[in-house]
């Protein structure tokens, strides 16, 4: 806008021009209008735009690296300094494990059924050194035979014992053979056992496939004959 002195001089000039061209009765009105028009036309109006507050998020180690937002106004954050192992609270569901898992260390399974189905060959190495493989406990009438038949192929040694309980006070005769077929068997051993006294006992090394024990009762009455075979 012109300063006060310039405005006044220009106004006087305008008034001088106006008074020379129009009658004096209308001069005052024209002068006022001319002055107002000049003043308003010479004024310059400046309106300041509203200030917009903004800030920038920069890298602490590199100020030139500024964070940006996407088209939706969202800030994207990438965190890559997590520790190798993460602590997890709650329930974790993993659905991409392989069908077969490799396990290192000791595994304890406590929900197996009481009876297990086994296929193939089972090797049991904690059997007792000597186990009972056959037992016969019967009352045998006079003139009859008490018998015991046992498989022996898996044993290197078989022990045979015969005891008799009777009232006649006599003995019984014991025969131990390779099997119960008289045509193919051969005698392994024989002996006697007395009623309520001495027992028959003998050890057989490498007894073969089968063993057949016979105890003949000739005591004159019924006798309880106990035959036992133990293998190792």
List the helices and strands and how they pair.
Elements: H1 4-21, H2 24-42, E1 131-140, E2 145-151, E3 157-165, E4 171-177, E5 187-194, E6 200-205, E7 210-216, E8 223-231
Antiparallel strand pairs: 1-8, 2-7, 3-6, 3-8, 4-5, 4-7
Helix pairs in contact: 1-2
Write a compact overview of the structure shown.
This protein is α+β, with helices and mostly antiparallel strands. The chain contains two helices and eight strands, in the order ααββββββββ.
| Helical/strand content category | alpha+beta
Distance between the termini: 130 Å
Summarize model confidence as the mean pLDDT: 78
Strand fraction equals 25-35%
Order of helices and strands: HHEEEEEEEE
What can you tell me about this protein's structure?
- The structure is a single chain.
- This protein is α+β, with helices and mostly antiparallel strands and 232 residues long.
- The chain has helices at 4-21, 24-42; strands at 131-140, 145-151, 157-165, 171-177, 187-194, 200-205, 210-216, 223-231.
- The strands form two sheets. It has a four-stranded antiparallel β-sheet with strand order 1-8-3-6, with no helix packed on it. A four-stranded antiparallel β-sheet has the order 2-7-4-5, with no helix packed on it.
- Helix 1 (4-21) runs antiparallel to helix 2 (24-42).
- The longest helix has 19 residues, at 24-42.
- The mean pLDDT is 78.
Keywords:
single chain, 232 residues, alpha+beta, four-stranded antiparallel beta sheet
């Amino acid at each position: 806008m012109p300063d006060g002195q310039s405005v006044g001089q220009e106004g006087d000039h305008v008034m001088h021009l106006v008074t020379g061209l129009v009658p004096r009765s209308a001069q005052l009105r024209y002068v006022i209008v001319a002055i107002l028009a000049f003043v308003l036309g010479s004024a310059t109006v400046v309106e300041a735009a509203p200030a917009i507050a903004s800030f920038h998020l920069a890298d602490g180690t590199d100020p030139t690296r500024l964070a940006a937002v996407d088209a939706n106004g969202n800030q994207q954050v990438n965190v890559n300094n997590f520790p190798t192992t993460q602590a997890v609270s709650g329930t974790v569901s993993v659905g991409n494990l392989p069908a077969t898992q490799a396990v290192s260390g000791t595994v304890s399974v406590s929900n197996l059924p009481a009876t297990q189905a086994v296929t193939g060959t089972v090797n049991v190495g904690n059997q007792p050194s000597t186990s009972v493989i056959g037992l016969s406990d019967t009352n045998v009438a006079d003139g009859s035979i008490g018998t015991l038949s046992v498989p022996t192929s898996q044993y290197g040694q078989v022990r045979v014992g015969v005891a008799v309980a009777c009232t006649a006070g006599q003995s019984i005769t014991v025969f131990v053979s390779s099997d119960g077929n008289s045509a193919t068997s051969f005698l392994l051993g024989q002996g006697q056992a007395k009623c309520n006294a001495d027992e028959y006992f003998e050890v057989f090394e490498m007894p073969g496939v089968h063993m057949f024990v016979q105890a003949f009762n000739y005591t004159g009455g019924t006798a309880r004959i106990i035959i036992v075979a133990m293998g190792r």
